[in-house]
Design brief:
The protein has 288 residues and is α/β, with parallel strands linked by helices. Helix content is 52%, strand content 9%. It folds into two domains: 79 residues, Arc Repressor Mutant, subunit A, CATH 1.10.10.10; 178 residues, Rossmann fold (3-Layer(aba) Sandwich), CATH 3.40.50. Strand 1, helix 9 and strand 2 form a beta-alpha-beta unit. Helix 2 crosses helix 5.
Length: 288
């Protein structure tokens, strides 16, 4: 059975790995090349790829059809889709000494990401988010994979100012256990940038249905759940295959600063109590 896009709801590379040992030697060589440099399939024509691997055009045709595609272009479309979704395997690593890997190139890209991200924000929106967070009964933070780090970081900043903040789910827990806890008095902050599991969006939709206000932080390409009160799209492109999260960290800093301003005297009093506890416990004193 063939398809004009992908033969099965699985990754392009997973299909090659699954069939690799059963392939003829020339096709194994082609498969190994693609597994090591999958971005080349998205970039090159069939003839160019055949020349790179030193196989015939017919070998390339047999290979993609064995995977279940109608032809090379269908396989290349699938590879392009996976590259767009953010897999670093589909992005070419920078060569040592390449100008794209210089300090200046990274700084310039970070500045571009900041400009693109914050150019879509306005002061009123940021203040509305901060005000909602301060007034919420509880503030919940969610992020899967690398997004968990950003959720934890923003929660750590705000926990010094607000009494009821939590990153979910906890160890050994599932998100379903939290659906009943969320209501219209809460704010849910979701980080769902690049290759975030769909579970984050589904949980946000459940929270929205229950009346919870949701701040959904994602990337320019990903879908945001309908009904999210605020959607912020952070740009994270980089000179190399790994993401540049400078704009996202700046967003966290901005939100924490605005929340502190909105929290007023109550926030500063809590911060003072936290600092007094640090002193009493000698938690932050270096050992002498």
């Amino acid at each position: 059975m063939t398809s004009s896009t992908s033969p099965a709801p699985t990754s392009f590379l997973a299909q090659i790995r699954h069939m690799r040992d059963a392939l003829p030697p020339s096709e194994q060589r082609l498969g190994d090349f693609i597994l090591n440099f999958p971005g080349d399939l998205a970039s090159y024509t069939a003839s160019e790829l055949a020349a790179l691997v030193e196989v015939s055009n017919a070998t390339v045709t047999r290979f993609v059809r064995r995977l279940g595609y109608d032809g090379y272009e269908a396989a290349r479309r699938h590879a392009r889709e996976e590259r767009a979704e953010g897999s670093p395997l589909f992005l070419e690593p920078l060569r040592e000494g390449a100008p794209e890997g210089s300090i200046e190139a990274h700084v310039q890209r970070a500045q571009q990401n900041i400009a693109a991200t914050f150019g879509a924000l306005d002061e009123a929106m940021v203040d509305a988010i901060a005000q909602a967070i301060v007034r919420a009964r509880g503030v919940w933070f969610l992020g899967h994979r690398n997004n968990r780090n950003f959720a934890s970081y923003l929660r750590w900043q705000l926990a010094q100012l607000l009494p009821r903040t939590q990153v979910i789910p906890g160890a050994g827990e599932t998100l379903g256990e939290y659906v009943a806890d969320l209501d219209a008095d809460d704010v849910l902050v979701v980080f769902a940038l690049r290759r975030s599991p769909g579970l984050s969006a589904r949980f946000a939709e459940q929270a929205i249905a229950g009346g919870t206000r949701v701040l959904y932080v994602t990337d320019p390409r990903s879908r945001a759940p309908a009904g999210a009160q605020w959607v912020v799209r952070c740009h994270s492109s980089a000179p190399g295959p790994l993401d540049n999260h400078v704009a996202l960290m700046l967003l966290c800093d901005l939100l924490a600063t605005r929340v502190m301003a909105q929290a007023g005297a109550a926030g500063r009093q809590r911060l003072s109590r936290v600092e007094a506890a640090h002193d009493a416990l000698a938690e932050l004193r270096p050992e002498r």
